[in-house]
Amino acid sequence: xxxxxxxxxxxxxxxxxxxxxxxxxxxxxxxxxxxxxxxxxxxxxxxxxxxxxxxxxxxxxxxxxxxxxxxxxxxxx
Length: 77
Prior knowledge:
Layout: H1 2-25, H2 31-73
Transmembrane segments: 39-62
Pfam families: DUF6133
InterPro entries: DUF6133
């Protein structure tokens, strides 16, 4: 009776070890890191573009635009 239980436990441990080995050798999730890096790069490039546009519009376009609007509505005559 005891030998059967020991054999059963050994077989279960061997089965779990084989399952762990198969999971570690599996390559089905290898693209998650690549996708995360691509998303991170896209977010960083998008943030840089937005910062550049904000700087351009904040210092170049908007002051001249507001001055032109004030000049357009502040006519005498």
